[in-house]
Design goal:
The protein is an alpha+beta fold and 99 residues long. 29% of the residues lie in helices and 31% in strands. It folds into 2 domains: 4-53; 56-95, no CATH class. The radius of gyration is 21 Å and the shape is elongated. The model has no long low-confidence stretch (mean pLDDT 91).
């Protein structure tokens, strides 16, 4: 399913089900920036306001307890006392279905 996004001047990204929702959110972000301009000047990142189609996203491909990962994958000799992390998570990018 096609997803859309909007991004505002304050570095916030939202996801939307329709293009119209994404456009409206971007328009609202520009309206908010316009409201700030007379008193505080234009926000520095006003030019970052945008909307579009999501083509890819990060997703988890592997998740396991850290100690298990340290023991089995890293073959870390001190895995029993290795408390640096609670879990191991591997992420990958993939294209989003466009059904």
């Amino acid at each position: 399913m096609t997803k859309f996004f909007s991004h505002d001047w304050d570095n916030n990204t939202e996801f939307h089900d329709t293009l119209d929702e994404a456009k409206a959110a971007a328009r609202k972000a520009l309206d908010d920036a316009t409201d700030l301009a007379p008193d505080d000047g234009w926000p520095e990142n006003t030019g970052d306001i945008c909307y579009g189609v999501v083509l890819g996203r990060a997703h988890v491909v592997k998740r396991m307890p850290w100690k298990e990962y340290a023991r089995d994958v890293l073959e870390h000799e001190d895995w029993e006392t290795d408390d640096r992390f609670s879990e191991y998570v591997d992420w990958q990018m993939s294209e989003v279905s466009r059904d």
